[in-house]
Amino acid sequence: MRPAVQPSGATMTGTDKGRDGPRDLTVVAVPFYFGAMAVEYLWLRRRADTGATTSRGYERRDTVASLTMGVGSLVAPLVLPRLLRPFTPGRGRYGTALVATALGAAVVTTAADLVARRNDASDGGHDEHGQAGGYGRDGAEGWSRERRRARARRIASAGGVTAVVAGGVAVTTTWASRLTPDRFWRRRILPSSGTGPLALALAIVGWDFIYYWNHRFMHESRYMWAVHVVHHSSERYNLSTALRQPVADVLGTFLPYGALCLVGIEPDLITTARGVNLLYQFWIHTETIGRLGPTESVLNTPSHHRVHHGSNGPYIDRNHGSILIVWDRLFGTFEIEDEQPVYGLTKNINTFSPRRIITHEYADMLHDVARSTTWTERLSYVLRGPGWALRHRGVLAAGPGDRPSVVATSPRQLDLSPDSQKGEDSLIPTL
To answer: What pLDDT score does 315 carry?
Structure first.
């Protein structure tokens, strides 16, 4: 389930226009959310009383964390874009300074990398990650080279993180500011399709198609996964999990739903499609509904979405669809539910703290960037899949010539079979 914000950078909330502007139907539906959760809770408790053990049900701290994240996903789109607006290149007063900071940090980091590698070569025994390999420190000159190397590595570590953070904010804020629905509507290539049932159906299907690719990108590129991982962090699966929503959409680059305006779909209909899409996803976050027969060949269902939330090897990065499961069937990411899903991450973070839930992947990613020694490595930790980071850490931990140690240090894509790694090593496409 996706958050209420329009990922292209402009909020397109709701379908009903009141005196104060658009109303968000997903907010209007809040009483329904709580009513449905109460019914599900009572059903699961009754089932547990009969001795059933297949469901973990509700847990107070987990539910509170999910609801807190839900509230955060509503507040964040109102706050974060305003905070970042001054840093938007070409729009904000600090945009040029942000770009200059990113470029300057990149230059300093590159220079520090060269100094460190030169001293590695002089010592003759360090590999590209600065690990000792049999060189001798012969006197003051050897110690001086070691100090220069260590100082250069510290500078490169700080500079690399600075360049990645500043550059990332510059890219994501620029992306959002340039891809608003209004801009697409002004540049539409087809006339308005009107507001009738057929136009609404086209808007819903169009939104669903774009959603599939955005959702898939969030699993295949680590900086996008850092936005989305909060939704997968619960080890339970119930209706409250649907409300455990990301709050850092401003740090992602999403295919813009507003692009539907180019083919004549009215912005208000796109807003309606968004509401339909989000409301549909609420009910599929449950274990109380089993298989639904022939409808599962076309529609996303609780069974299909349980697979998506499973950390079992065959289930990882499968069933990305929202309303329609046909996209997964067409593009090779479909998996049927044939074993009990194990919910959560491949390495769970064991916390109910919303702060930790939001930030843990960013912290791990920047730590990896800080310890990197080349730009290829730094950008790979950010742009490639979480599974690449896992395997690369294993290579570094094993050392030269050793078999990589596969330790669960990455949140997703622990399974290293060829099928489970499909697509994760490629850089995120240029959008």
So the answer is: 97
> Cβ distance 167 to 379 under 8 Å?
no
pLDDT for position 320: 98
Token pair of 111 as six digits: 């220079």
Phi-psi region of 59 (alpha: psi -120 to 50; beta: other; left: phi over 0): beta
CA atoms lying within 13 Å on the CB side of residue 142: 9
Alpha helices by DSSP H, 85-94: none
Q: Closest Cα to residue 7, out of 263, 197, 277? A: 277
CB atoms near residue 324 (< 10 Å): 19
d(CA 337, CA 345): 18
CB 133 within 8 A of CB 126: yes
User: In the chain, how long is the greatest CA-to-CA distance?
Assistant: 83
Kindly compute the dihedral angle of the four CA atoms of residues 59, 64, 67, 69, in this order, to the nearest 10 degrees: -110
Q: Are the C-beta atoms of residues 271 and 12 closer than 8 Å to each other?
A: yes
The predicted pLDDT at position 80 comes to 96
pLDDT tens-digit readout, 40-96 = 999 998 888 777 666 688 999 999 999 999 999 999 999 999 999 999 999 999 999
Compute the distance between CA of residue 97 and CA of residue 103 in angstroms, rounded to an integer: 10
Dihedral sign, CA of 175, 180, 183, 186? positive
Alpha-carbon span 305 to 270, nearest angstrom: 24
Residues 6+ apart with CB under 8 A from 187: 262
- 406 is written with which tokens? 């596969």
Q: Single out the residue of 431, 425, 335 nearest to residue 384, CA to CA.
A: 425
Burial group, residue 59, by CB count within 10 angstroms (0-12, 13-18, 19+): middle
Residues in the chain: 431
> How far is Cα 281 from Cα 301, in angstroms, rounded to an integer?
9
Of 185, 180, 195, 188, which Cα lies nearest the Cα of 269?
195
Q: State the pLDDT at residue 399.
A: 62
Alpha-carbon gap, residue 151 to 157, rounded angstroms? 10
Residue stretches of the chain with pLDDT short of 70: 1-25, 52-55, 121-142, 397-431
Report the amino acid identity of residue 219.
H
Please spell the DSSP secondary structure of 387-410, one letter per residue.
HHHHHHHHHHHH-TTSPPP----S
